[in-house]
Amino acid sequence: MDEILKGLRASAEATRLRIIGLCAHAELTVSDLVEILGQSQPRISRHLKLLVEAGVLVRNQEGPWAWYRLPEEGVGGELARLIVDLLPPDDRKHAQDLKRLQAISEGWTARVADFFRQHAGDWERIRSLHADQKAVDSALLDALPGGPIESLLDIGTGAGHVLLLTGDRAQSAIGVDRSREMLNVARSNLFRAGLRHIQVRQADMMSLPFADGGFAAVTINMVLHFADRPDAVVAEAARMLGPGGRLVIVDFTPHHLEALREEQAHRWLGFDDDQIRSWCRAADLAWLPPRHLAGGSLTVALWSAERPVADASDAKDSSAVRLPGKVRARGRSTRQAKP
Q1: Number of helical H runs and strand E runs in the chain
Q2: Where does the record place the HTH arsR-type domain (predicted)?
């Protein structure tokens, strides 16, 4: 009861209602909200502090930047979603806020386009050396568990490619990356795709900030060759899997393109099946048959392994594996309409 009252008191103010309505559509910074609402930074920060303390918003720090969004579970999250449902779509201020949010998102899109223009040449050169990207994407989807995926973690998410690819199947998902620049690209891509049930976080793939066994699926897509200790990355990914959860790794098989070390900072020139199998088995995962996709100078491999279901009770629990802070749609689509 106290949590509900605290959330209601914090929300019962015009500007704070507008903030809740905006954060239902996108993860936003103080600067974003200042620009949209036309109020001072100290005032917006005060509103945000009250909403976070009441559990109606959550705050995620990335270096000097703090991002705010609705909680995905708990009383505060449920209350926030009820409030959003009650906001009248024809309210003039709310409609103006969403128009300004759309304008800001177009600025994000322009920055993303500029980022990709700067790096497109390098990425296209690599893509030309391996199998068609559509074939790789199709194989990745086939390697994941069939049907809806309750909770997915994408390690080294970059621009959010895997999150976008699995957005319709994942009931909730989170992507992690060390680069704030890439996370901003991912946020913009997810916003434009309308995938409000997916989030991204800054984190080190060697030390993930989540409890053991919190995910039904984990992906490591074209990231392992950058790792100083790929075996430790696989072990950390395995720690994330609940009973019956599946790990899918996509990377190159061994090759001799030394230029990728200098030009793209690749730490490793591919991996063989035996290496990946040994790391998965060391993490107590059950090995599944790999798949190889030959291309030009590079062959892409998809390696999969599962966390065994120890007994019947674990099997029952595995059906309830959920992302920390999972969005619970309660009959509503996890894809929200764009503002």
Answers
A1: 13, 10
A2: 1-90
Beta-strand relationship, 241-252 and 291-294: unpaired
Q: What is the DSSP string of 273-301?
A: HHHHHHHHHHTTPEE---EEEE-SS-EEE
pTM above 0.85, yes or no: no
The pLDDT tens digits for 30-73 are: 999 999 999 999 999 999 999 999 999 999 887 778 889 998 88
pLDDT value, residue 115: 55
Phi, psi dihedral angles at 208 (to 5 degrees): -80, 140
CA–CA distance, 79 with 11 (Å, rounded to integer): 9
Does the pLDDT value for residue 323 go beyond 50?
A: no
Residue 232 near residue 241, CB atoms below 8 Å: no
Q: Which domains does the chain have, with CATH numbers?
A: 2-101 (1.10.10.10), 129-318 (3.40.50.150)
